[in-house]
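Help!! Second protein's tokens look totally different from the first
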Amino acid sequence: MINFDVSNIIYICKNRYEVITWKTNIHLILVYLELSVMKIV
């Protein structure tokens, strides 16, 4: 039972981390696009 809890917590943490990095990547891409548009204009 304890073993299951630990692996479950690790799984949840990993998922949250992936979601955070995914959002960060989207944000960086948006910033990059904005800068590119500004350079073109």
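Here's the second one for comparison:
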Amino acid sequence: MNFEIRISSHPTGKHRFEIEVTENYEGNKWHVVVFEKEGKTYTHYETIGIDTWGQLQKYLKDLQDKAE
């Protein structure tokens, strides 16, 4: 399974982070690649491996808090 997520900043509503999540990739249960978006430019922000769904949810929430 793989999916993409956009996390919006507040109060502007502009997308600040775009996240690609892939299950069972490169030895990780959840392989997460994060890009920071400024205008039309995407810059690699971070790549991490996460072991559980709960840890993935916490990571996304923490990332959203950074975007606010």
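Reply: Different proteins will give different token patterns, so don't panic. Residues 53-67 form the longest helix (15 residues).
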